[in-house]
Amino acid sequence: MSVILVTGGTGLVGKAIQHIIETEPEGSRFGKRPGEKWVFIGSSEADLRNQEQSKKLFEKYKPTHVIHLAALVGGLFINMKKKLDFLRDNILINDNVLHNAHELGCKKVISCLSTCVYPDKVDYPLDETKIHLGLPHESNFGYAHAKRLVDVQNHAYKDQFGDNFTSAIPTNVFGPHDNFDLESAHVLPALMHKCYLAKKNNTPFVVWGSGKPLRQFIYSRDLAKLFIWMLREYDDVEPLILSVGEDEEVSIKQAADAVVKAMGFTGEYRFDTTKADGQFRKPASNKKLLSLIGEFEFTPFDKALEETVQWFQQNYENARIGKSQ
């Protein structure tokens, strides 16, 4: 019997993994396998910063495998304001998960990192060899250093004990169950929520910045399949970038246009170029992933965005939207 524990199981990626496990045919490439029990836990079940609660959680479920998604996350502003919280909370969470997985003799742990772990000054495209080649961006150094340490810990556990601990580095994830709170949401869910409110209130849809920056977006349900594939087939300690290709970059304007179309928004729509654009592009290479996985079909961006918009409209009242607008 395999018991796969998914920490952060109630968030964007956790919900996507649950969706794939429940909807793909049993025994198929990404479906549930006979003899597998999947457990999705959120912070209400255990505070993973707490050593005792973490230990009790692992003793309760006795996982054989762990997909570790739990983290203290937030947007740019809160990262800048609470650098120590983001550093310390994430170090505690990650240390408790990896330590308990080791103590229980888990066969495998995959932890989720982020492209923000990369150095601020780096040659593009990003790849798996460049994580530690310089300091991360000042704005999120607490979070970035804590996440980098997971890679350090994975190597240390492997070197000292032979543990099969590794990590995944997704690019910009979006999909159902995302955080749509305008105070802290990432760019795509923020655009969806803004457009939804503009349509509802008959006001202009104003996108901050020029719309020119480029991003690689990965649909949460595609990412979920990649995590399941990693769990079953990837046994290297080195991290793996999970992303669409560099040729799949989408401009913020293209993304906003797609949101307008999916929402059926017909009102005034413009860009506020007095607002900052942020980094123009930070492409990541998925060559290593493609060399290992073989056949894999990513959901076209417009289709994935349309599905997410539909989910958001149907679940608006129960979605993470922050203070009601």
Automatic annotation (TrEMBL):
From the UniProt record, which GO molecular function terms apply? GDP-L-fucose synthase activity; isomerase activity
Domain spans labelled NAD-dependent epimerase/dehydratase: 4-244
Quick one: which pathway? Answer: Nucleotide-sugar biosynthesis; GDP-L-fucose biosynthesis via de novo pathway; GDP-L-fucose from GDP-alpha-D-mannose: step 2/2
Identify one Pfam family in the record: Epimerase
EC number annotated for this UniProt entry: 1.1.1.271
The keyword Nucleotide-binding appears for this protein: no
Listed A to Z, the keywords are: Isomerase, NADP, Oxidoreductase
* Xref: InterPro entries: Epimerase_deHydtase, GDP_fucose/colitose_synth, NAD(P)-bd_dom_sf
Alphabetical list of CDD domains matching this protein: GDP_FS_SDR_e (cd05239)
Q: Name one GO biological process term.
A: 'de novo' GDP-L-fucose biosynthetic process
The answer to keyword Oxidoreductase applying to this record is yes
Per the similarity annotation, which family is this? Belongs to the NAD(P)-dependent epimerase/dehydratase family. Fucose synthase subfamily.
Q: In its UniProt entry, what is this protein called?
A: GDP-L-fucose synthase
